[in-house]
Amino acid sequence: MDRPNWAPDEVDLTHPSVARVYDYYLGGSHNFESDRQFADRVLGVLPDMAAIAQQNRAFLRRSVRHLCQAGIDQFLDLGSGIPTAGNVHEIVGQLAPRSRVLYVDHDPVAVMHSRELLAGNEQTAVLAADLADPERVLADPILREHLDLSRPVAVLLVSVLHFVGDELRPAEVIRTYLDAMPRGSHLVISHATHEGNDEAADAQAIYNQQRSPNAMRMRTRAEVTELFGDLTLVDPGVVRIPMWRPDSPAGTGPASERYPGHAGVAFT
Ligand SMILES: C[S@@+](CC[C@H](N)C(=O)[O-])C[C@H]1O[C@@H](n2cnc3c(N)ncnc32)[C@H](O)[C@@H]1O
């Protein structure tokens, strides 16, 4: 198999990665046969996975738009993924062009492709790091140069915390980030759930088998709400992803009640 220039040498092309599998769900081209085979197993039990991923991206757009309207101009996007259309820097570029965005991911393809795409863009930087090590991320010179932690920041954890198991204490991880930021900082979470959705539970089981890119820990609405700690949730609170401030009433509906993910936005 030829190695494309966006796949650094350390990448094992025969083992699927969360970032590249997600890229495949979204119709992207930064994935390999191992990713497509794994994704196809998930699609076998959750055939709507592509639409589910698109709806998650639509939530990302709506939430970032809300943050721009709330006056936020610094974004820490943790688990930012392989860039695809409608990334955070593109959304804020239209609404608040002076904003700064820092993308953080531990996937080499996501990091390399983000760096290539953003060459020459001084508003946006990329950091290769494990988001579950907040002290290391917060102390990194790239973060310190790019974001001003004396002013409010929005921390985005969009479709990633289900890859952070309970043993990594995700609520404490989040708290460490927010404690390093002043009042008025925001937190955005979207998170996979199996609540009321057996197909999603089957998909989770596939992620928890051998040859999986990452173990998965889906969470209930109550568990996702707990991750926000004592922050103040904006309306409508933690809800199924399509129901978080939909652009039109058509965005909600019976299918949305079973959408396998919850989301919310809160501030300190
Ligand atoms: C499902 S994708 C979501 C991408 C993007 N946030 C979105 O919603 O479109 C999850 C991303 O989180 C990254 N990720 C998972 N665990 C991580 C960790 N511990 N540290 C940094 N990145 C992580 C993966 O590499 C992947 O790119």
Give a description of the structure.
The N and C termini lie far apart (49 Å). α3 (49-69) runs parallel beside α4. The protein has a single domain, classed as Rossmann fold. The chain is of the alpha/beta class. The mean pLDDT is 94. Strands 1, 2, 3, 4, 5, 6, 7 and 8 form an eight-stranded mixed sheet that branches. It is 38% helix and 15% strand. It has eleven helices and eight strands. It has helices at residues 18-25, 33-45, 49-69, 88-95, 108-117, 134-139, 141-146, 170-179, 198-207, 221-227, 254-257, and strands at 74-78, 100-105, 124-128, 154-158, 186-192, 232-233, 239-240, 261-267. The protein binds S-adenosylmethionine. The site of S-adenosylmethionine (SAM) has 20 residues, from α1 and α3.
Structural descriptors:
8-stranded mixed sheet, alpha/beta
CATH superfamily: Vaccinia Virus protein VP39
Write down the oligomeric state.
Answer: single chain
Count of strand segments: 8
Low-confidence stretches: none
Present as ligands are: S-adenosylmethionine
- The count of helical stretches stands at 11
* Tally of domains: 1
Order of helices and strands: HHHEHEHEHHEHEHHEEHE
The rough form would be described as: globular
What radius of gyration results from the CA coordinates?
Answer: 17 Å
Content of β-strand: 5-15%
Structural class: alpha/beta
Average pLDDT works out at: 94
Topology:
Elements: H1 18-25, H2 33-45, H3 49-69, E1 74-78, H4 88-95, E2 100-105, H5 108-117, E3 124-128, H6 134-139, H7 141-146, E4 154-158, H8 170-179, E5 186-192, H9 198-207, H10 221-227, E6 232-233, E7 239-240, H11 254-257, E8 261-267
Parallel strand pairs: 1-2, 1-4, 2-3, 4-5
Antiparallel strand pairs: 5-8, 6-8, 7-8
Bound molecules: S-adenosylmethionine.
